[in-house]
Amino acid sequence: MTTDASADVPAWARAAGPAHDVALTVLLEGPLPRSEIARRLGLSAGTLTRLARPLLDAGLLVETEGAHAASGHPTRPLDVDESAHRFVGVKLTQHTAHVVVTTLRARVLASDEALLLSPEPAQVVEAVAALVDGVVARAGATGSVRAVGVSLGGSVTAAGSVVDARFLGWSDVPLGPALQEALGLPVVLDNDVLSFARAEQWFGAARGCDHFAVVTVGEGVGYAYAVHGQVVDHPDAGVGTVGHLPLDPSGPLCPQGHAGCADAMLSTASITTRASVAHRRQLHRDEVYDLAGAGDPVCRRVVDDSARALGRLVATVGALVVPRKVIISGDGVRLAEVGAAALEAALAAQRSPGTTPLHVEVQVTGFAEWARGAAVTAIRTFVLGEGS
Ligand SMILES: [Zn+2]
Fold first, then answer.
1. 329 alpha carbon to ligand 1 midpoint, in Å?
2. Less Cβ crowding at N or C end of the chain, within 10 Å?
3. Do 160 and 387 meet the contact criterion of CB atoms below 8 Å apart?
4. 222-237, pLDDT tens digit by residue?
5. What is the pTM of this model?
6. The domain spanning residue 49 has which CATH number?
7. C-alpha distances in Å from residue 330, one per residue of 128, 218, 368
8. For residue 188, what is the domain's CATH number?
9. Are 211 and 357 in the same domain?
């Protein structure tokens, strides 16, 4: 949904064409001297001056105190007023809502989380609205929030409906409009893995990287990729396309009956179940990784088998998509840390000889980082003037 800000705020979307490119360049890479902006966008100094003037007048850009250039003339680099606009990001999981309030550059000002006592949509809306109101007040952001982004594991529509979110038992739930009414703010929904990837692209590990992939492990297996600077969106993005790729023919079964598919090898439930069965007592996720790190033979074996499978998945992505970087993240990311040796060995074994090593970055993040991703969905909507 389009989330134009209130009428008294100069919306970024109103700066069209090259002017918008100037504003976006400064948002993502500023503060920058005018000469550098002109060089990056292929503009003459005069054209940049003409384009920048209304942006400065509207308050979208500001001049900062700069250093002296080599010529001895003072430079006044252009920047954005990061704190003039605030955004809210909400990440929904099966049992919790995580909320952050951020600046225009997704710097987190305040965060909080709350248990969801019921998956009933009306109660989720009520709980999320109360949580958001509290965090916004604590951040001193009342009145300056431009948009709210909500991300979840599932598919959503541009009109703000959750088409399918199995972990909440939802299908066709108009979450966006309901939350918008409760909060009195524009609300935009996004798939959590796509929003995470977009956040990494603008303000995270994939900054300046036009071609990258994201693999997430946790309750499920998520995947997103970007080519030519665009995170690829498609109708199945919310369903997860890699969840049942075969990774280990001797692996356990997933609920669909596949032996050793990505879900069977990498999902938290599968990892804890395998370790728990061998130990004949219920183990929690972190217990499995702690025990593996301490040399417990069962947990070591389970983690290494899964980490090898993750290495094969990442190697497959590397071979077919040829990204400059693969980011591994998600709430189950300890798999890549504790199983690092097995992951790297599998990656190396599957990489074609003579090819350059695949750049893999393991990013340890909590749910607050996913909520920040949702805030970036809101920021993008505000800045680009389009639905997610
Ligand atoms: Zn499967």
1. 20
2. N
3. no
4. 999 999 989 998 878 7
5. 0.88
6. 1.10.10.10
7. 22, 6, 11
8. 3.30.420.40
9. yes
